[in-house]
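Q: what does this look like with magnesium ion bound?
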Amino acid sequence: MELLKIEELSKNYLTKKKVICALKNISLSINENEFIVLVGPSGAGKSTILSIIGDLEKKSKGQIKFSKKNIKVGYMFQEDSLFPWLTVLDNCMLGLKIKNKITKEDEKYVKMLLKKYGLSNFEKSYPKELSGGMRQRVALIRTLAIKPDILLLDEPFSALDYQTRITVSDDVFKIIKEEKKTALMVTHDISEAISMADKVVVLSNRPAVVKNIYEINMDNKTIPSENRKNEKFNFYYNAIWKDLDHYER
Ligand SMILES: Nc1ncnc2c1ncn2[C@@H]1O[C@H](COP(=O)(O)OP(=O)(O)O)[C@@H](O)[C@H]1O
Ligand SMILES: [Mg+2]
């Protein structure tokens, strides 16, 4: 079932000196439980799309249509956004604290997630005591705590080294699938996109237009680190590389 439909979305940023056209007629639909990845060069307008969906930025033109009312949007950003002075548990409860009063159920849900994803022994730890991968898991659990209908992930692994990136992609992917969430992720890493996505949406240079959409159909599709070894992987990689290679530099 369709959860979100973006129609002819355009965005111009008005600065004192000029108008920056960031998005031009972006159309895209996202089904429930789907994992969509947007790839495109930096400065293309990827974060702008997420900001508009999350209502942090106004659109200039077009439509964002959700199939349900009062949709909850969860964010996970590129930087390690945990507060160093709060414990893991308090960091996870933060989104809830901002939104409303915390119920016993909320706390139970967060503790269940921490336990399920191997962090229950770290509830009282501080972020600096955790590995980069664990911190990203905490950040994801904090996002899940509000029970969002859609998760927006903006280059969530970009601060991690390559090895950690691979394992954390697996962790984040498993959690999102296990919790049956719909996700829209942004990355400029083609391999990461193919290994995680149901669909990869390739954006052009700014102003971003949708250049191509690939449904990632692999036999024996499984977790991202394994999908990287799939025989179809290179086919998608080359196709997307070609799309991106046409950019002017
Ligand atoms: N608040 C803003 N005001 C003016 N220009 C902006 C603002 N946010 C982003 N931009 C510009 O819009 C373009 C797209 O930005 P962004 O969506 O962050 O790209 P990406 O996430 O793909 O790197 C860039 O040229 C950026 O400089
Ligand atoms: Mg960005």
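The chain has two domains: 2-71+149-245, 84-147. The radius of gyration is 18 Å.
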